[in-house]
Amino acid sequence: MIIKVLVENTAVSSEYGKVHGLCLYIETENHKVLFDLGPSGLFLENALKMGVKIEEVDTVVISHGHYDHGGALGLFLRQNSRARVYVHRKAFDRHFSKVLCLYADIGLDDSLASHDQVVLTEGNLELDQELMIIADVKKRELYPQSNRNLYTLEGGKKRQDDFSHEQSLLIRQGEYRVLLAGCAHCGIVNIMDKACCDLGERITHVVGGFHIMRDKSPEPVRELARCLKGEDVQYYTCHCTGRENFALMREEMKEQIEYVSAGAVLQL
């Protein structure tokens, strides 16, 4: 399995563009997958530099309804006419980030919900023997504090988002069980627990953001690190984890956690 980081907040060198967002390309025995697309056409630019042919992608999974993960969906659909794009049906609802008293719209283009290639999902969905979408995470252990500033629109009123529109991707190949999480708004511990307990899968690798970038207190970050290092799992984090809080986690977890940037290639 090969994972190439096409979009991330940072880059391995000046050769690659960087932007706040996430897009991962995964090549398995049977699939060429994009997990998230980032906010702009940067995924196309970095894909070209990394030898990824976007027109050959057969599966796309959008992790949740925020533009930094799915804002480039329209661009992708103009480049690729064959892939199935799996998006939670609630991801096309209106989503906001609250700064002071102002609400910024951070949602997706809802006109794309009816596109022929878009498959609206709800709950867990087994695509085949390799790929499974994990959703509907209820547990709230070590829940990210930064979620408090994120809202959705329900019944014409804004309320704090419960991230029922979030989904993760489990890839099964040989002895590996690789969990991809966009922001892990539901809490990476809870998503892993859903995969392990509900589905009977033992995770070997986790790739994604943990949504702790804006957490200013170090103790919750260290607590998360102590919890994660108790599992026999290799972690590759990025995006909304943030480099500062990654450094705190690294102190606790050592080589069990790595940071990946745009231009990075993982071979599992």
Describe the structure.
There is one protein chain. With 268 residues, this protein is α/β, with parallel strands linked by helices. It is 20% helix and 29% strand. It contains six helices and 18 strands. It has helices spanning 42-49, 67-70, 73-79, 188-198, 218-229, 243-253; strands at residues 2-7, 23-27, 32-35, 59-61, 84-88, 95-99, 102-105, 118-121, 125-126, 131-135, 150-154, 157-160, 167-173, 176-181, 205-208, 234-237, 257-259, 265-267. A seven-stranded mixed sheet has the order 8-5-4-3-2-1-18. The chain has a seven-stranded mixed sheet with strand order 9-10-13-14-15-16-17. Strands 7-6-11-12 form a four-stranded antiparallel sheet, with no helix packed on it. Helix 5 (218-229) links the parallel strand 15 and strand 16. The longest helix is centred in the last third of the chain and has 12 residues, at 218-229. The model has no long low-confidence stretch (mean pLDDT 96).
